[in-house]
Amino acid sequence: MHSRWPALFALLALGGLYAALPPSLVLGGARWLLLLLISLLLVPMLISHFRGAHTTNQVLGYILNALVTLAMVISLALLILALPAHLEKPQELLKSAASLWFSNILVFASWYWRLDAGGPHKRAQRGDHASGAFLFPQMTLPPERKHAAGIKEWSPNFVDYLFLAFNTSTAFSPTDVPVLSRWAKLLMMLQSIISLLVIALLAARAVNIL
């Protein structure tokens, strides 16, 4: 269970970032609603995990990821629509762009972590991670190099996917982790587009009007 805590904290952080947005960028203006929904859904997720109901846990995880993704996309669309009318003050615009940029990283890190190689439960069952949508450097090490590095069985955890998502949002590429799966390539393209919109269109506009 300890390997899941970073992913759960990331979801709570997403709720906090959403609550930091101005009411005009939140559907209905209810900034704390997403954090409340995340907290409520985490309860049955934890219960299903401890009871071994992994299919239920997986479905709840997909629902929660879809919920935070939808909230982020709606807020991004509202921010883009607000730009021509200058509805947001420059300081609020920068703050909103930063919140959405960090949200983009956490949202897609959660998707990669939940989807790669069948999800965290199936990866844990297999022990050594030898195949998946991403080719991590540890997967290419020969047995003797793994033994020398003190790695007997290696499997990616949430931090590995967070690092991948961070690189995608900053460098617009996976850097040291090649992408093997088509669904992963599509998700990374979408993440890069969102990051580009936030950085190039929103943050740059805010700096110009300071």
Q: Layout of helices and strands, plus pairs?
A:
Elements: H1 5-19, H2 33-50, H3 54-85, H4 90-115, H5 120-126, H6 143-148, H7 158-171, H8 182-208
Helix pairs in contact: 1-2, 1-3, 1-4, 2-3, 3-4, 3-8, 4-7, 4-8, 7-8
Brief write-up:
It comes from Geomonas silvestris. This protein is mostly helical. It is built from 8 helices and no strands.
Describe the structure.
The chain crosses the membrane at residues 29-47, 59-81, 93-113, 186-207. This is DUF1345 domain-containing protein. Keywords: Membrane, Transmembrane, Transmembrane helix. The protein is mostly helical and 210 residues long. The chain has 8 helices and no strands. The model has no long low-confidence stretch (mean pLDDT 87). α3 (54-85) packs parallel to α8 (182-208), α4 packs across α7 (158-171) and α4 runs antiparallel to α8. The protein has one domain.
Number of domains: 1
Main pleated sheet: none
Globular, elongated, flat, extended or rod-shaped: what is the shape? globular
Helicity, in percent?
Answer: 55-70%
Unreliable stretches (pLDDT < 50, length at least 5) are none
Structure class: mainly alpha
Distance between the termini: 46 Å
Mean pLDDT: 87
